[in-house]
């Protein structure tokens, strides 16, 4: 079973690229972030024609998350991250795909830091940690996949010294991610590529992709019930090099389930 996460950076503009990638790689589950489309503008028909069922949580111009399943429709079990009923941003959705529980998330960027946006990021992270604590020991397999907007270590950023004051790399952000993973989650990409510089995001500016000046900010975390099934974890970086791409590349795991 292949489960992927892909920050599409605007599903309207990137729909052809998304459909091409789905046809080429045929992931069993695809978690999408940054749809940048209201609920009614999600291209459900095109996704269905590609062989996928979908659930999504849209938002006009910003944010938005979706879970796609090949040959079936994900069974939604949660919409919105628990802990703040006033939070109107579309950043989290949960579903069952067969026996697998899939949590798709788009964690806030948080810049400029310090400031209100950074405060929101850390508060959102605390809510994710609380949800993670509820799910990590579940008897069922659980994956939390998405754009976490955090580089966990210096190995995950091309020039660490340039990012020390950025919300994605500040000590508070990295500590929050370490707390989450420390509950017992497996960082799949790092488990399969220890010590390797492997990126999932390259900025549009200054030829970042050509220079491989990237960041690893898209993560797939597996709970202990799922971690033994991990067989591969990779990044489809060629997708980032195509015409009019997202600034992220699809990141995926293969699971023996």
TrEMBL record:
- Per the UniProt entry, what species is this protein from, by scientific name? Pseudoduganella guangdongensis
Task: Identify the catalytic residues.
Answer: 106, 147 (proton donor/acceptor), 248 (proton acceptor)
Site: Interaction with DNA substrate. Where?
248
Site positions (Transition state stabilizer): 149
Mind telling me which Pfam families this protein's record contains?
Answer: Exo_endo_phos
**InterPro entries with a match to the protein in the record:** AP_endonuc_1, Endo/exonu/phosph_ase_sf, Endo/exonuclease/phosphatase, ExoIII-like
* Site feature (Important for catalytic activity) residues: 218
EC class of the enzyme, as a word? hydrolase
CDD domains in the record? ExoIII-like_AP-endo (cd09086)
UniProt superkingdom: Bacteria
Per the record, the GO terms for biological process are: DNA repair
**Know the name of this protein?**
Exodeoxyribonuclease III
Which key words are in the record? Hydrolase, Magnesium, Manganese, Metal-binding
Where does the Endonuclease/exonuclease/phosphatase domain lie?
4-248
Q: Where does Mg(2+) bind?
A: 7, 34, 147, 149, 247-248
EC numbers listed for it are: 3.1.11.2
* Named cofactor requirement(s): Mg(2+); Mn(2+)
User: Which gene is annotated as encoding this protein in its UniProt record?
Assistant: xth
**What GO molecular function annotation could you give as one example from this UniProt entry?**
double-stranded DNA 3'-5' DNA exonuclease activity
Q: Which family does it belong to?
A: Belongs to the DNA repair enzymes AP/ExoA family.
Cofactor binding mode, per the note? Probably binds two magnesium or manganese ions per subunit.
């Amino acid at each position: 079973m292949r489960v992927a996460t892909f920050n599409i950076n605007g599903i309207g503009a990137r729909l052809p690229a998304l459909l091409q990638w789905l046809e080429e790689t045929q992931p069993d589950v695809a978690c999408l972030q940054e749809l940048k489309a209201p609920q009614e503008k999600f291209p459900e028909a095109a996704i269905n024609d590609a062989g996928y069922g979908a659930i999504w949580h849209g938002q006009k111009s910003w944010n938005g998350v979706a879970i796609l399943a090949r040959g079936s429709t994900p069974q939604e079990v949660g919409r919105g991250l628990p802990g703040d009923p006033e939070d109107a941003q579309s950043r989290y959705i949960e579903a069952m795909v067969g026996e697998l529980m899939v949590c798709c998330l788009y964690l806030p960027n948080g810049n400029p830091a310090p400031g209100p946006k950074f405060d929101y990021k850390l508060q959102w992270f605390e809510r994710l940690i609380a949800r993670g604590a509820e799910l990590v020991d579940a008897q069922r397999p659980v994956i939390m996949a998405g754009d976490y907007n955090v580089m966990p270590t210096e190995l995950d950023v091309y020039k660490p010294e340039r990012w020390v004051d950025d919300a994605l790399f500040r000590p508070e952000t990295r500590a929050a991610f370490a707390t989450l993973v420390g509950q017992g989650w497996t960082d799949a990409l790092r488990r399969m590529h220890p010590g390797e510089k492997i990126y999932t995001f390259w900025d549009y500016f200054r030829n970042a992709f050509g220079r491989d000046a990237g960041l690893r900010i898209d993560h797939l975390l597996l709970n202990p019930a799922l971690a033994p099934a991990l067989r591969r974890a990779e990044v489809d970086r060629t997708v980032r090099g195509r015409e009019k791409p997202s600034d992220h590349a699809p990141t995926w795991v293969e699971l023996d389930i």
